[in-house]
Design goal:
This protein has helices at about 15-30, 55-70, 100-120, 140, 150, 170-175, 195-205, 270-280, 300-310, 320-330, 340-345, 345-350, 365-370, 380-400, 410-445, 455-495, 500-525, 530-565; strands at about 5, 10, 35-40, 45-55, 90-95, 125, 175-180, 185-190, 210-215, 235, 240-250, 255-260, 285-295. The protein is α+β, with helices and mostly antiparallel strands. The strands form three sheets. Strands 1, 2, 3, 4, 5, 6 and 7 form a seven-stranded mixed β-sheet that branches.
Length: about 575
């Protein structure tokens, strides 16, 4: 899975469009990240920019934005309603897909260190990137705001984590930046079949983490109870990491519970939906649908879809598209307007729509492309696709078995196998295009110049690297296709007997995938100058091939036995 992170820097300028445009242009330079939103605020004199991309380009884009902000914003002249301490006030990194919060925290610390060294911008690290528990809280890092920096900088206990020095002219202009990492925040509205804001608020207070004030006699109109320090005692709601209120929307003519989920690992979207439904039902109200504000990571909807499939005792080993459809329908994401994936799911918005991949072709087009005069796609891609079909057949038998009448007590067992099979299918489908990419890398080397000794050396090194890659890709195809035998064996022995022949065909396809990919390993390994490395790869490939022959033979024996009994 491609690693994607989101970055949401807040810049201390919300009124001068030229300055804002220049900062955004610096971030977008090179087209390696995608700017999703630019939200300036005049009263706050602050602009929030949201952009996404792969980790390294995002870090570079953040540095470019911080640099431009330091050049164009003078904090000595800044005034606004929002707390702030720097030209780039905060810069959080947020995991979207293929990367953990811990990895984002490490990237945030690197970003803070580089900003201090390369741009001379002092940086505090907060939230998941904090070096001390108290600095997880942004308010602690920003204590005293910009005006308090002169008293804090240069002090060991109060100064920034990177670039700590006495408050100088450069710091006076740029201020300090808080760089951190946090989980993805989802803004969502739950639609209610009522027009009552008061009832919507009551539901919001039932579920939000803060809850509602404790009142005398437990009555809604009772006087709030305070503690010894005079603070109102709160009765916590049922959902951690959530903030919520109720309101009425003129545009739709309904009341909603409007919620921010600040930690989707603690409270996933589907859990919030179910809990709001429960709280609403207790008050005689029904949740009719859900409105996502902004974007969500794909994993949010995949988790939701699987949650509702499990509640139905249905297999989760189906395509992403089908899982997302279940999520959309289960939570009513399309009640108020059509749910457009390319406008709501970050990964779909970032999807490269240029150039058609092999796996996006029709079966006929793929066959015609293979049959053409072009040397790629070739045997390596076909082997990977045969492996994908082997996994697909095993997954099909698992899904049919999960839904077989009379086998209801075994649905989860087969669902787990179907999910494993679908994962293998996805890996092998990706290898279809990667094998062709490996071939193209070798072809690209031959276009490199080779006049000077330096050019010849660079070309030789690039060819060795490309050849190694072209050998390792089919070896991965072999290893991944081999994994399908566990699934196929299980389905042959325990799956729906009516589909045992499909498991057998899968075993034959898996064996062909392994042995076909081995041919590519052998022919590419022959071009490696590092003969020890080549020998190691060939030995590994032969072990997988021999084991594949044995596994296929045993599975076919099981299949024939079941068919003969039928």
């Amino acid at each position: 899975m491609k690693k994607i992170i989101e970055c949401v820097p807040n810049f201390s300028e919300g009124r001068d469009k030229a300055v804002i445009d220049a900062i955004v242009a610096a971030i977008a330079e090179g087209n390696e990240v995608k700017v999703l939103d630019v939200d300036p605020g005049e009263a706050t004199n602050r602009t929030v920019v949201t952009f996404v991309g792969e980790p390294e380009p995002v870090v570079e884009a953040a540095l470019r934005g911080m640099k431009k902000a330091a050049e164009l914003i003078d904090m000595r002249k800044h005034h606004g309603a929002h707390p702030r301490m720097g030209a780039t006030d905060v810069c959080p990194l947020i995991p979207v897909s293929g990367i953990s919060l811990e990895e984002c925290a490490a990237l945030a610390r690197q970003l803070a260190e580089r900003a201090a060294k390369e741009l001379n911008i002092p940086c505090y690290c907060y939230e998941a990137a904090a070096y001390s528990p108290e600095r997880k809280n942004l308010a602690v890092c920003r204590e005293g705001e910009y005006e308090g920096l002169a008293d804090r900088m240069g002090k060991e206990d109060k100064g920034p984590d990177f670039g700590n020095r006495p408050f100088d002219e450069e710091a006076a202009k740029s201020g300090c930046t808080a760089v951190g990492a946090r989980d993805f925040l989802i803004a969502v509205n739950f639609n209610l079949n009522t027009t009552s804001t008061r009832r919507a608020n009551a539901i919001a207070f039932d579920v939000r983490e803060k809850g509602r004030p404790k009142r005398e006699g437990g009555k809604l109109n009772g006087k709030p109870i305070k503690d010894a320090d005079g603070n109102v005692i709160m009765l916590p709601g049922t959902l951690k990491a959530t903030k919520a209120i109720g309101w009425f929307i003129d545009e739709y003519g309904i009341a909603q519970v409007s919620m921010n989920i600040t930690d989707i690992a603690t409270t996933p979207l589907h859990i919030a939906f179910d809990e709001v439904c429960r709280a609403a039902a207790e008050r005689g109200i029904r949740v009719t649908g859900t409105e996502i504000v902004g974007l969500v990571p794909k994993r949010t909807l995949i988790e939701a879809g699987k949650h509702y499939l499990r509640k139905q005792q249905r297999s989760t080993g189906i395509s992403e598209d089908e899982i997302i459809k279940i999520a959309v329908k289960s939570m009513g994401l399309d009640e108020l307007k059509p749910f457009l994936r390319e406008e709501k799911i970050i990964e779909d918005m970032l999807a490269d729509k240029k150039g058609k991949k092999l796996v996006d072709m029709t079966c006929r087009d793929f066959a015609e492309e293979t049959a053409s005069e072009s040397p790629a796609p070739g045997g390596g891609s076909i082997s990977a696709y045969m492996g994908a079909l082997a996994a697909a057949l095993g997954t099909m038998v698992a899904n049919l078995s999960a839904h077989k009448a009379g086998w209801d007590d075994r649905w989860e067992y087969f669902s787990d196998w179907a999910e494993r099979g679908h994962l293998l299918q996805d890996k092998l489908i990706a290898l279809v295009d990667e094998d062709t990419e490996a071939f193209n890398r070798i072809m690209a080397v031959f276009a490199m110049p080779k006049k000077t000794p330096e050019e010849k050396a660079a070309r030789a090194a690039a060819l060795e690297e490309a050849t190694l890659y072209a050998t390792e890709v089919p070896l991965r195809t072999m290893a991944t296709a081999f994994e399908t035998f566990d699934l196929l064996n299980e389905m042959a022995e325990k799956g729906n007997p009516a589909s045992v022949s499909d498991a057998g065909v899968g075993a034959l396809a898996a064996r062909a995938a392994v042995l076909g990919a081995q041919l590519n390993v052998r022919i590419n390994a022959a071009g490696l100058k590092d003969r020890a490395k080549a020998a190691s790869l060939l030995l590994e490939a032969e072990k997988i091939a021999e084991a594949a022959r044995e596994r296929e033979e045993k599975i076919i024996a099981v299949v024939n036995n079941v068919i003969d009994k039928e």
